[in-house]
Amino acid sequence: MKSMLKKLPLILLGNLLLAVCVSHFVVPTGLISGGITGLSLAMNHLLPGVPLDVFIWGFSLLFLAAGYVFLGREFALTTLISSVAYPLFFSLLTALSRSYLPLTEDIVLNTVYAGLLFGVGVGMVLRCGASTGGSDVISMILNRKLGLPISPVSYVVEALFLLSQMFYSDAQKILYGLIFVLIYSVTLEKVLLFGTGKVQISIYSQAYEQINRMIVSTMDRGSTLFKVKGGYSGSETWVVETVVPKRSLFSFREKILEIDPKAFVVVNPISEVNGRGFTMRKDAR
């Protein structure tokens, strides 16, 4: 929690960028969006008398509560900041920007800037080891309870959020909305990590036993231990190796350094992982 507080300014900045994206580019243009924003836009169309920020506040707190109940206190703490900061920034910016919006009538400019801001904002939050909530909460709950893989479920949930807005949007806004989603997906990919969706981590540390227990018990990941000998020191120790989704990399690395600040951590992007916990349920034999 202390490390999260140190990164609070970056987490807040990331949520501010998200709020600017939605209030200044998505809503004025009528683009479709994913996550809590997309769900709120769909509900706002069904109940136009209710302000959009009310739905954003409601869904943010609802997903936060669901995360606490099904995923535990630690996950809820990583989501708490975004669950309050994003709706708060959105409400303030909506109230302050009424006099000068829209910034431009050009839907292409709106789409491009929305995608860039959204991708950078989410990427900043995730790099700090925090969570933006939304579809991540749903996919992680389904993974915990049913053993469904997180990444495919996240894509399905996001697709459903997008489909919920297509019933009332015209064809042009839907097409531009899909471009917006594509731009922020690519931007997020670049902000998080150059490469693919999983990373292989090798940890060189004298505290390998404690780190291995943390990986297996706390992070619920598999691990492999290799005995090695230092080329300079000549001392023998064990290397702990594991594979994690890229979204978990930064929070995972923080946990390692909390155990051993001197740990030597090597991260390699990988193209494909098959087996339990990835393409098979964790209880598969």
Concise synopsis of the structure shown:
The chain has 285 residues and is of the alpha+beta class. It has helices spanning 2-6, 8-29, 35-46, 52-71, 73-96, 107-127, 135-146, 150-166, 171-192, 208-218, 249-259, and strands at residues 198-204, 224-229, 236-245, 264-270.
Mass-distribution shape: elongated
Helix content, binned percent = 55-70%
Number of domains: 2
The helix/strand class is: alpha+beta
Low-confidence stretches: none
Largest sheet: 4 strands, antiparallel
Quaternary structure classification: single chain
Rg, nearest Å: 21 Å
Strand order of the largest sheet: 2-3-1-4
Number of helices: 11
What is the residue-averaged pLDDT?
Answer: 85
Distance between the termini: 36 Å
Helix-strand pattern:
HHHHHHHHHEHEEHE
Strand fraction band?
5-15%
The tally of beta strands, per DSSP, is 4
Question: How are the SSEs placed, and which strands pair?
Answer:
Blueprint (H helix, E strand, L loop, with lengths): L1 H5 L1 H22 L5 H12 L5 H20 L1 H24 L10 H21 L7 H12 L3 H17 L4 H22 L5 E7 L3 H11 L5 E6 L6 E10 L3 H11 L4 E7 L15
Antiparallel strand pairs: 1-3, 1-4, 2-3
Helix pairs in contact: 2-5, 2-6, 3-4, 3-8, 4-5, 4-7, 6-9, 7-8
Structure, described:
The structure is a single chain. The chain has 285 residues and is α+β, with helices and mostly antiparallel strands. It has 2 domains: 2-192, no CATH class; 198-270, Alpha-Beta Plaits. Helices cover 62% and strands 11% of the residues. The chain has 11 helices and 4 strands, in the order αααααααααβαββαβ. It has helices at residues 2-6, 8-29, 35-46, 52-71, 73-96, 107-127, 135-146, 150-166, 171-192, 208-218, 249-259; strands at 198-204, 224-229, 236-245, 264-270. The chain has a 4-stranded antiparallel sheet with strand order 2-3-1-4, with helices on one face. α3 packs across α4 (52-71), α6 (107-127) runs parallel beside α9 and α7 (135-146) crosses α8. The longest helix has 24 residues, at 73-96. It is elongated and about 70 Å long. The mean pLDDT is 85.
